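Researcher: We're teaching a course module on how sequence relates to structure. For the next exercise, students receive a sequence and then see the predicted structure as tokens, so they can try to spot secondary structure elements on their own. Here is the exercise chain.
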Amino acid sequence: MSDTAFSAPGHAGVLATQAHQLMAVWLDAAAGPLALLDLSFPSLALGGFLRSDLPGLADAGAIPAAATAFYGRFRAAGGHRPLFGLGGVEDAAMLAAAELAWNQPGRQRLVYTQDPVAPAILETLHQAGAWMLVRGAAAVAVARLPALSVLPLVIETDGEAARYTLLLPAEAAPQMRRRLTEAGWGFGHVTPGKDAAEDSSGPVVLCAAPLPLPHDAPLLTQIPASALIHDGAYRSEADGAYSWVWTGPERHVRMVFGTLPPAARWLKVAVIGAGKAAQLEGLVATLDGATLPHRLERWSETSAGVIVDLPPGYSGSPILGLAVPATVQEPEGIRRLGLCIHKIEVFV
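Model: And here is the predicted structure for the students to work with:
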């Protein structure tokens, strides 16, 4: 199946991407540290900025069966977990996993969705005490949950407004409104809501310029192998904090890493090993299913940085693919191997 068959549009719009980035920073400053479950796969509108270890689908039953099968090929956390939302038993196990941020003390559970959530999943997340940040069609059904207060949030940047709705326990809403107001002043102008001291029904509005580039620009962000969401690779391995993942047994690997920062212009895949030099020499790269040129920053015959330039004006959540001419037999083992990937770096 083509990567493009069911993927979200790659050109999501720079303004929308800026709003998602601002929202991630704003919420993290006001309510953090957060434990995010991003149900907007493959766009992962917030997960690309907050690096959620729980990516998933809002309602797998609401999309075509072929799309569900395609998404079901992807594995999160370097290949160690399936996507959330594909199965009741596996979903419950993921939410109970002690190693996830979701279950770490002191973290506020937050769910993001822009599509209506399956009723069973919605009830489970409600019972788990999660706050919910929603957009669009998702807001109607979620707003009916009992004992939740509706806090409208608006981000205005470059003359455009992006509207979100935060649902949280009624007793937490007044303090969260104050925290959002205080946090927002750190990087913009905040309107806390209509007569906020007496009437808390108005939206909290953040007027802000796009976030500045990080101090270490041109490097915007990097995704280690242990955090990759991929189809076509084995489970990641690690030595302390250093992680890597081998592609195989198929010739191709697809990788999803969420919404890119608005200033992103090119990517580098750090390939620290290959079975033989021909695997790098005959490499084919794709973006959202379309073949595109790449170049190699050679480190040795079997290692290189694979550099891919994003098309002009590209903004969104790419599905990056790499295909080798053939896999090779593991010297000591039974696996068929392609490339050994250490990380992906995103540059301005």
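Model: If you want an answer key for the exercise: The chain has eight helices and 24 strands. The chain has two domains: 3-207, 219-347.
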